[in-house]
TrEMBL record:
<dbReference type="InterPro" id="IPR017941">
    <property type="entry name" value="Rieske_2Fe-2S"/>
</dbReference>
<dbReference type="GO" id="GO:0051537">
    <property type="term" value="F:2 iron, 2 sulfur cluster binding"/>
</dbReference>
<keyword id="KW-0479">Metal-binding</keyword>
<feature type="domain" description="Rieske">
    <location>
        <begin position="9"/>
        <end position="106"/>
    </location>
</feature>
<keyword id="KW-0411">Iron-sulfur</keyword>
<dbReference type="Pfam" id="PF00355">
    <property type="entry name" value="Rieske"/>
</dbReference>
<keyword id="KW-0001">2Fe-2S</keyword>
<keyword id="KW-0223">Dioxygenase</keyword>
<dbReference type="GO" id="GO:0051213">
    <property type="term" value="F:dioxygenase activity"/>
</dbReference>
<keyword id="KW-0408">Iron</keyword>
<keyword id="KW-0560">Oxidoreductase</keyword>
<dbReference type="InterPro" id="IPR036922">
    <property type="entry name" value="Rieske_2Fe-2S_sf"/>
</dbReference>
<protein>
    <submittedName>
        <fullName>3-phenylpropionate/trans-cinnamate dioxygenase ferredoxin subunit</fullName>
    </submittedName>
</protein>
<dbReference type="GO" id="GO:0046872">
    <property type="term" value="F:metal ion binding"/>
</dbReference>
Length: 110
């Protein structure tokens, strides 16, 4: 692994994450959800800020870029992390996604 990827977590190859698909990886104790929105990759903490429930269980709307928590219906913008409707008011953390030689990488950069 090159030095510039030392603190990054391998997600998968681009071919393994088609538009509309999502994958969760762990960076230490942080679950990170990576989503392909029509060829653009976004990563957010895989945890609803309203209740401790994984966002990866919910559907992604490709047109709006929103993911819905199936527990109580809160929605979050995958591009910004913003909570877009109650019962969630606090945004989810967002993380960088890097593409290197067709492979996706992410990390908790907080």
């Amino acid at each position: 692994m090159s030095d510039d990827l030392r603190d990054w977590e391998f997600v998968c190859t681009e071919a393994e994450l088609l538009p509309g698909e999502k994958k969760t990886v762990w960076h230490g104790d942080t679950p990170i959800l990576v989503v392909n929105l029509d060829g653009d990759y976004y990563a957010v903490e895989d945890q609803c800020t309203h209740e401790d429930f994984e966002l990866s269980a919910g559907p992604v709307d490709q047109e709006t870029g929103l993911i819905e928590c199936v527990f109580h219906g809160a929605k979050f913008d995958l591009r910004t992390g913003a909570a877009t409707c109650p019962p969630a008011y606090t945004p989810v953390a967002t993380f960088p996604v890097k593409v290197v030689d067709g492979a996706l990488w992410t990390r908790d950069n907080r």
